[in-house]
Design a protein that fits this description.
With 80 residues, this protein is mostly beta strands. It has no helices and five strands. The protein has a five-stranded mixed barrel with strand order 1-2-3-5-4.
């Protein structure tokens, strides 16, 4: 079972690579307030299809470079 995440493309300046910002929400264990946290993942985009602002689904992959361990599975929504 591979991990799957959904996020927004924040950078596409590299060749065949995009940076995807994935946000998650969770409740604080003691106070119960809903907290939002974000993490950036580098993902493989072989055809350079993704643009900044696109909503994409990324899946875990074997190490493709020093930082790249994810690949773009599909583009869910194009940027306006």
């Amino acid at each position: 079972m591979r991990k799957v995440r959904v996020g927004r493309v924040v950078s596409n300046r590299m060749d065949k690579t995009v940076v995807v910002r994935v946000e998650r929400t969770f409740r604080h264990p003691l106070y119960g307030k809903v907290i939002k946290r974000a993490k950036r993942f580098k993902a493989h985009d072989p055809k350079n299809e993704c643009q900044i602002g696109d909503r994409v689904e990324i899946v875990e992959a074997r190490p493709l470079s020093k930082d790249k361990r994810w690949r773009v599975a599909k583009i869910l929504e194009k940027a306006k």
